[in-house]
Amino acid sequence: MTSPTRPLDIDAEINVCGAETRGGPRTDHTVWRQVFAAAESDGGPGRVRDAR
C-alpha cells in the first residue's frame, strides 16, 4: 500500500502561505458561525448545520 499523501514540504508551504501565518487549532466560534452561515445560505445538498 502507498500513502495517500505526500511528505509535507515546509518551504513550499511558507512560499504559498507566508511565514507569518498563524497556526494552532481553529477554535474561534465567530469564524465557525460564519462558516456555518455561508454553508446554510448556499442551499445546496450537504449543507453544514450548527448543532448547538
Topology:
Elements (H helix, E strand, L loop, with lengths): L9 H8 L11 H14 L10
Number of separate strands:
0
What number is the mean pLDDT? 75
Oligomer type: single chain
Shape field: extended
The biggest sheet amounts to: none
Helix content: 40-55%
What percent strand?
A: under 5%
What structural class results from the helix and strand content? mainly alpha
Run of helices and strands = HH
How far apart the termini lie comes to 40 Å
Count up the helices: 2
Q: What is the radius of gyration? A: 16 Å
Give unreliable regions as ranges. Answer: none
Describe this structure in words.
The protein has 52 residues and is mainly alpha-helical. Helix content is 42%, strand content 0%. The chain starts with 9 loop residues before the first helix and ends in a 10-residue tail after the last helix. The mean pLDDT is 75.
Output the keywords.
52 residues, 2 helices, 0% strand, mainly alpha
Gist?
By secondary structure, the protein is mainly alpha-helical.
